[in-house]
Amino acid sequence: MADQLTISDIASKAGVSKTTVSRVLNNSASVKKATRDKVLAVIQRENYSPSSAARSLSKRVSDTIGVIVPQLNNPFFGEILSGITEILDAYNLTMLCMSTDDNIEKDLASLANIKNHQVRGLLYTPAVDYVSSYVDKYDRKRVLSLLHKIRAPIVLMDRQLKGLDLDGIFFDDTKGVYNATKALIDKGHTKIGIINAPLGEWSLARIRQKGFADAMRDAGLPVEQRYIFAGDYRMSKSYELSKELLAMKDRPTAVITCNNWTSMGFLKAVHECGESVPEDISCIGLDRIEALDIVGLNFNFIERDAVYMGKKAMELLINRIAFPDRPKQNILIDPPVVIRKL
Amino acid sequence: MADQLTISDIASKAGVSKTTVSRVLNNSASVKKATRDKVLAVIQRENYSPSSAARSLSKRVSDTIGVIVPQLNNPFFGEILSGITEILDAYNLTMLCMSTDDNIEKDLASLANIKNHQVRGLLYTPAVDYVSSYVDKYDRKRVLSLLHKIRAPIVLMDRQLKGLDLDGIFFDDTKGVYNATKALIDKGHTKIGIINAPLGEWSLARIRQKGFADAMRDAGLPVEQRYIFAGDYRMSKSYELSKELLAMKDRPTAVITCNNWTSMGFLKAVHECGESVPEDISCIGLDRIEALDIVGLNFNFIERDAVYMGKKAMELLINRIAFPDRPKQNILIDPPVVIRKL
DNA sequence: CTGAAAGCGCTTACAG
DNA sequence: CTGAAAGCGCTTACAG
């Protein structure tokens, strides 16, 4: 078996020039129908498909898009990827996928990698909020420089980078948490806790906190500092904090948990204390937890449809590739609050 | 800002030839220390990194590995990806990721795509069991031909393709299901059902069924055809079948559910019927369902560590790339049965 | 409608 | 230890 079929092989077998083969491959210039058919037949018969490396090199862009997410074993991002691929295939694009583990160095390395691959576009969930003053100035410089060097369009997913003129798609967490908090208040709760993350580090934490604070303020309720817990959106930390919360003498009667793992940590702590939700303490979490829903556990949540986010992000990117000069778009998805039992 | 820095720019700035720059980039031939340092300094200062397309074209292999999985929104595969990336980064490889949605056409398209990208290797979970007689002969031919054209090493993950001399890593589902069934029998159950998938289509279904049948036989128990349900490893189908099962007059007292979604569908049905596990009917599922575990729902399961599988698969691939001629390896992971409450 | 030639940005014998 | 030159497999002006 010959090594790898090249465009020259096809050209000679079809009795035409490489140029012509290239043209039918790319549907670029007009080729006489008879010629085209002949070439197509050979391509078909030989099962030829062009090398993407060669193609990328001469076109100066590849047929790939980059996807950078902070975690791959979080179903939230799995669903985003799933949404992305739904659209991707229709455009003959391939996904270069990297996970940064919420780590700055890996994030920068991924960005550099993306640059070298000359992707057509990038779907990006930054590992940290580089624009925040919390982040080291040097790291901010580096990320900005890399972002600038990636000539392809970039669409932000789920996490904002304020002040950078980029397309983006986000959930309106402020509204989601506001509505969730309000639901709790309407039910009569006044002592409401929240397990979130450090506001400096996470823009997500800020917008979620805002929804909470706004709702409390609108109801004339004070925001008690001691009812605010800063986790890291991971389960184990949330579990610890929840234990603390549950052990308080004057503890909250309801809690907002700010992502799926935070909710899991909370529920674990509640269960271990022999208590239950919502009998002993109420809870509304950010993100559906499918399994709980299914077994009728009455878990209340703010629903973020991640598959939808992935699809929309990819559509934004496709549009941006097609129309580079249109003003940037930021889509805000309104996440409904689903109350099973308060 | 200049368009894109090339190796020529670096060469001229450093006052050496492209060849020399290439050599320090690749650490290929020996370069005088002074020269190397000079070149390195320029690369550093200019923040240069070579185009991967150009590199791939001249080396005839890319710096990517392909990963083909059937689903991206199943946490099982999310965890596999997560395991893969843990290893990947250390080798400066990038992951091309595709999802086939358990669909033959998408699977073939992905394989073709992988071929064009000249990946260094492929981690592959086939959409269907191409070797089974159930699959159209023409499709089998096509997949075999594609697999053959991908010159890079291939490692199978989770789903076997019997008769093809490939590396692979799998869970010993036969043993897992055997032990689970035995646990049920030891507890006194004799009427045991199983929600699996069609045996012809799925090799996974066959090995799981075998574990079940073996355990029944070893216990001298008959395998009742009407207690065997063939779903499709998706939730909605399992839900339907479970409703049927629960409505049987002489129904099983215990059920084996053959993947995470099958378990979810079953639990949903049980819950909707106002019954509970294990009081009204016992269950052991394949795959942990983290959320249930956490809220103390006493869900029994056969534990498949998907992150571990991803890591090991990647390690197999790395080894195969390094030693192309060693005999192929097949790793069988023994999945423990975790019993919470029977 | 078609083809010869140059070029994309690297690597790799080959020569020195 | 270093460099000039050819080549990887495509695409794209340019010319006809």
Structure keywords:
homodimer, 342 residues, alpha/beta, 434 Repressor (Amino-terminal Domain), Rossmann fold, 6-stranded mixed sheet, 13 helices, elongated, DNA-binding
What's the CATH first level of the largest domain in chain A? Answer: Alpha Beta
Write down the secondary-structure element order of chain A: HHHHEHEHEHEEHEHEHEHEHEHEE
Gap between N and C termini of chain A: 68 Å
Instruction: Bin the strand percentage of chain A.
Output: 5-15%
Strand order of the largest sheet of chain A: 2-1-3-4-5-11
Give the tally of structural domains of chain A: 3
Helix tally of chain A equals 13
Cα shape of chain A: elongated
What does the main sheet of chain A amount to? 6 strands, parallel
Based on secondary structure, the structural category of chain A is: alpha/beta
By DSSP, the count of extended strands of chain A is: 12
Q: Considering DSSP H and I runs of 4 or more, what fraction of the residues of chain A is helical?
A: 40-55%
Protein architecture, described:
2 copies of one chain form a homodimer. Chain A has 342 residues and is an alpha/beta fold. Chain A has 3 domains: 7-50, 434 Repressor (Amino-terminal Domain), CATH 1.10.260.40; 63-171 and 307-333, 3-Layer(aba) Sandwich (Rossmann fold); 173-302, 3-Layer(aba) Sandwich (Rossmann fold). Chain A is built from 13 helices and 12 strands. Chain A has helices at 7-14, 18-26, 33-46, 52-59, 75-88, 104-116, 137-149, 173-186, 203-218, 235-247, 260-272, 290-294, 306-322, and strands spanning 64-69, 94-99, 121-124, 154-157, 167-171, 192-196, 228-230, 254-257, 282-286, 300-302, 330-333, 337-338. In chain A, α7 links the parallel β3 (121-124) and β4. Chain A is elongated and about 85 Å long. The model of chain A has no long low-confidence stretch (mean pLDDT 93). Chains A and B meet through α4, α5, β2, α6 and α11 of A and α4, α5, β2, α6 and α11 of B. The first copy, chain A, binds a DNA duplex (16 and 16 nucleotides) through α2 and α4.
